[in-house]
Amino acid sequence: MTATIVESVYGKLRGQQQGNVIVWKGIPYAKPPIGGRRFRAPQPPEPWTEVREAVLFGPAAIQASNGIMEFLGNQTDNTSEDCLYLNVWSPAADSRRRPVMVWIHGGAFTSGAGSSQTYDGRSFAAEGDVVVVTFNYRLGALGFLHLGDVGGDNFSESCNCGIQDQIAALQWVQDNIGKFGGDPKRVTVFGESAGAMSIGVLLAVPKAKGLFHQAIMQSGAAATVLSSTIAGKVSGRLLAALKIGHGEVDKIRQIPAQQLVDTAALLPAMSLVPVIEGDLLPMHPEQAVAEGIAKEIPVLIGTNKDEYRLFSFFDPRWKQSDAEEISSIFEHAFGLNWQGISQHLINGEELNQRIYDNLMTMSLFTFPALKLAELQVKIGAPVWMYRFDWETPAYGGELKACHGLELPFVWNTLSRAGTEKLTGILKERKKLAEEMHHSWICFAQSGNPNTPKLPEWSAYNLQHRPVMIFNRESVLVHDPNSEERKNWGSLMRHLEKIQ
After folding, report:
1. Interatomic CA distance for residues 67 and 414, integer angstroms
2. Which residue range(s) make up the domain with 387?
3. Which residue, 49, 232, 238, 62, is CA-closest to 137?
């Protein structure tokens, strides 16, 4: 056998040499989740006898078009309901037992793909001597629609199919990665946005225990889940839109996938996310973490300074709204919590886009990350925190340090075509990419992100709250979100009391 041919549990795979790295693409890690397997847990793939060519990416999960994701480089020219494929980059298919980094892509649980050009694992493999895995998982209604209450046992697994796909991919890594030069006992999961939120769930899933050993969470934590009651209401709305009655839920398996995706796209954002349900996720992930389920997992977690700017910048309402319309934007975003937020945090200021961005960033990203870090520290787990403060000069600097901006720095893929649209072309980008890229590599190798390229990075603690600020000159800062953190924590306690 040549060095590019590997014998997996299911059959031989021929990859492709790319410089000093080998890549295998489009490897099936489960049977196609189509027909009778729609809304069911993933099943192991069928073995094959001939050498399988693994040189093309498999289809991404079928998804609706998303302008912001396309701006970030998401490609949707090849999507399908048959989407459960993964990709591997390795320095060599030998017996070296390298650290393994498994990437879970973001996209609000409704879009994205492991084959995005940003997520090219060559630099990690070449510079870090690690094995990198990316994969696709079911999205939107096909991955997270809660049908168990109305469909019975036939649909009992439907609400967390996407999470079960992630577990299946991690199980594939355990069973096969040794043949690709990786160590199944040294697996770091890392992800961004919905990918990081998925990791927050996986930390709490008993079935995922032992499938990974460290976690890196970028702009996502353990707060994004729905109760089965709320998820049931979401499914009720979708079934009504599809004109499916409660006694005929089986019909949803015959509806064309694209129709299902397009109809689900009419639901409010983040309506289709992991659900607290059954044996898979029996309690809220934050509660499970507080009880110590992930106490042996080192965690590197952080956010971007201006996360929500990515979304508000492209929202036309901010360019043409009067004071009354702006007030309605806040009320719609925060719902029943808006009165408490306005009383405790606004202090009579005139509402504007800056305040909105700050509140949304804190509520959706910063505070959940801080809370998860605190929970892990309290049970004795090692935690490192960062904040990405580098502001892109693109669009006249208006995007600031927005959501997703750190991705090409972490992956060291700044040279990819189109990336300058997001990051600009300043030479200082390269230094920051080297710092972040090597810090992530160090964490994968040792469970500690310290690298000679950065100032000393202390583990997070509740006395000093050290946070690495990634910027033109990266620096360790104690409690950089101090005032916001305290104010938001006080607000959350107030809201819990009145609810």
Report:
1. 21
2. 5-498
3. 62
Q: Annotated active-site positions, please? A: 193, 307, 403
Q: How long is the chain? A: 499
Report the candidate in 222, 131, 193, 203 with the shortest Cα–Cα distance to residue 407.
Answer: 193
pLDDT digits 0-9 by tens, 72-107: 766 777 899 999 999 999 999 998 899 999 999 999
The mean pLDDT of 299-315, rounded to a whole number, is: 94
pLDDT digits (tens, 9 = 90+) for 108-117: 999 999 999 9
Domain total in the chain: 1
The alpha carbon torsion through 252, 253, 258, 260 (nearest 10 deg) reads 20
Q: Strand 16-18 to strand 21-28: parallel, antiparallel, or no bridges (unpaired)?
A: antiparallel
Read off the CATH number of the domain in which 348 is found. Answer: 3.40.50.1820
What phi and psi values does residue 277 have, to the nearest 5 degrees?
-160, 130
Residue 27 CA to residue 58 CA, distance in Å, equals 7
Give me the amino acid identity at 281: L
The 10 Å Cβ neighbour count of residue 119 is 23
Exposed e or buried b per residue across 344-383, where buried means at least 16 C-beta atoms within 10 angstroms of its C-beta: ebeeeeeeebeebbbbbbbbbbbbbbbbbbbbbbeeebbb
Residue type, 213: H
The dihedral over CA atoms of 100, 110, 359, 203, expressed in degrees to the nearest 10, equals -40
pTM score: 0.96
Mean pLDDT of 223-235: 95
Q: What local confidence, expressed as pLDDT, does residue 1 receive?
A: 41
- Among residues 447, 426, 450, the alpha carbon closest in space to that of 436 is found at 450
Closest CA to 285 of 160, 382, 188, 385: 160
